[in-house]
Amino acid sequence: MKCPQCQGILVTLEFNRIEIDYCTRCEGIWLDFGELRLLLAQGEKGDSLLRTMTPARSKEKKRRCPICSKGMGEILIGDGGSILLDECPEHGMWFDRGELVKVLEAGCADSLKHARASSLLQLLDEVFTLCKE
Ligand SMILES: [Zn+2]
Ligand SMILES: [Zn+2]
User: Among 38, 82, 101, 126, which is 20 to 30 Å from 45 by CA?
Assistant: First the structure.
């Protein structure tokens, strides 16, 4: 699969038994449909975060879905719509560098969020370093 942002090749990683596709060039992440919910660990906090998703329109350039190549829509998520994501309603979501960590911090239970966000960062860091060598 190609990165919708920079056309780099996405590498598949496993995080918390969920497959995520990571671009080692621009550090963006693709999640297949439904994987975000799994990553947020089915908590009340995750559900209420998912309910904050609203369609958006920004001046950012439209990206294409890496699976079907259709233009993706934009959505805002988080308290006050603080994070902007790209979404293909059929296939999944694109997170720019650092955005998935923010979403995890906003949507995981307090007891879990730091551990989960930092283990994601650690995994990405390792792969990023590996690919640069
Ligand atoms: Zn990329
Ligand atoms: Zn698609």
Answer: 126
- For residue 73, the ligand closest to its alpha carbon is 2
The pLDDT tens digits for 77-119 are 998 878 999 999 999 999 999 999 999 999 998 888 999 999 9
Ligand nearest to the CA of 87: 2
Cβ partners under 8 Å of residue 42, min gap 6:
none
Query: Which amino acid is present at 17?
Result: R
CA 22 to ligand 1 center in whole angstroms: 8
* Domain parsing of the chain, residue ranges: 10-125
- pLDDT tens per residue across span 41-83: 767 899 999 999 999 887 777 899 999 999 999 999 998 878 9
